[in-house]
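Hey, can you fold this one?
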Amino acid sequence: MPNFGLVHVVFLLQGAVWTLVLSALGFVGGGLIGFLVALARVSPKAVIRVPATFYVQIIQGTPLLVLLFIIYFGLSIYGLDGLPAIVAAAVGITIYTSAFLGEIWRGAIQSIAKTQWEAAECLGLSSWQRMTRVILPQSLRIAVAPTVGFLVQVVKNTSLASVIGFVELSQAGKDVNNSTFQPFITFVVVAVIYFVICYPLSWSSRQLERRLRGANR
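Sure. Predicted structure:
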């Protein structure tokens, strides 16, 4: 039985790389969809706003694990067999992330004072111009801190991708433990790697929140 060594650390670091890749895919894809969801959520037209609200409620009310099972196993019913684990994981995390980012950004947009909306309207700006030139630049500053904070959750949630066979950091830790039967040292190293990834993001989120509070005084 091999002892835990450098080769296992390297394997865990390779899993960490895939964790970062999956996090990036889910966050970027979820951000693009989430931005559209946020705009739809604040739309004055019910035909746009209601479906977006329903989408957010459904996704936020569904565990990510269930989404991954539906995408990876459920789609085989419709002939989509052999879907790569990374594709299924990226799609699942993208959908999950989009609903939460959409709500974060919707809250940031709606937090802008009504007078700002009215002032932009008095200037004769169109709805799109009001949003892109007046509202979004102000809401961006508000949304940055919670968005960065949510990214930490995205990184942690990638561990659920192991249930569909994707080898990220968490699954790599399980594989190393099955090889060495040294769970303590194995998962301590896994925890340290997660900390190294997540702590700078958490720290950045706290710093951004402090700056925001200071700017609003």
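The chain has one domain: 6-215. Let me know if you want another pass with a different chain boundary.
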